[in-house]
Write a structure and sequence with these properties.
The protein is of the alpha+beta class and about 90 residues long. The protein is built from three helices and four strands, in the order H-E-E-E-H-H-E. The chain is about 20% helix and about 30% strand. Strand 2 and strand 3 form a beta hairpin.
């Protein structure tokens, strides 16, 4: 799991602890420890849900200012509609 350059510092500081991903299949596993972009992190939970189920708290924890900003960032792999299934990944850096 890679992080956008403009988010990396906030991930490193522990300010961002959640990521919404548009994947065909999981790219990480719960309890897995990973290194990407100079960051080491552990996945705490993974949940598949429609984009419409993403909460305001999820948006904040992902480092985005709005649902539409999150939709745009996550849509690099394709368009995201409200019913599109996305992965909600909670993690922490270590």
């Amino acid at each position: 799991m890679r992080f956008s350059p403009d988010l990396r510092e906030r991930v490193a500081l522990g300010e961002i602890t959640l990521s919404i991903r548009l994947w065909q299949r999981p790219q990480v596993r719960v309890g897995g420890r990973y290194e990407a972009d100079g960051l080491r992190f552990e996945v705490e939970s993974i949940e598949v849900l429609p984009f419409s189920a993403v909460t305001a708290e999820d948006i904040s924890r992902s480092g985005e200012s709005s649902r539409e900003a999150l939709r745009q960032r996550a849509a690099h792999a394709g368009p995201i509609e409200d019913e599109t299934l996305v992965y909600r990944v909670e993690f922490h850096v270590f």
